[in-house]
Amino acid sequence: MINGAGVVWQIVPRISDNPDGVTDYAFNLANDLWANLGLRTVFAPGEPSQASKKGEFEIASIADAGTPPVKPAHVILHYVNYGYQKRGLP
Where are the alpha helices (DSSP H) in 1-90? Predict the structure, then answer.
């Protein structure tokens, strides 16, 4: 496993092209982490995603997170009690 000293895993509810406050915030954070600190972000959505990249960011299934190609230096869980339910229920 490669040392990922410059890698951040961000766990988000989903990856979508639709507006989503939690994921939009995570992407803004990823852009700032890259621009200001040189930290690369890999997103791990709770819902399966067909995409493997969004913009310059890699997307890895949460199911594959147990064996990531790079061991991240940091993990950020974006949690809200409604973000992981389809109908927005806690």
Answer: 21-37
Task: Give the separation between CA 65 and CA 78, rounded to whole angstroms.
Answer: 16
pLDDT tens, position by position, for the chain (90 residues)? 345 678 899 999 888 888 888 889 999 999 999 999 999 999 998 887 777 888 889 888 776 655 556 678 899 998 876 655 566 555
The SS3 of residue 76 is strand
Angle at 56 between CA 7 and CA 19, to 5 degrees: 105
Q: pTM of this prediction?
A: 0.76
Cα–Cα distance for residue pair 47/45, rounded to 1 Å: 5
3-class DSSP state of 71: strand
Residues recorded for the chain: 90
Query: Residue 53: which residues within 8 A CB-CB, separation 6 or more?
Result: 59
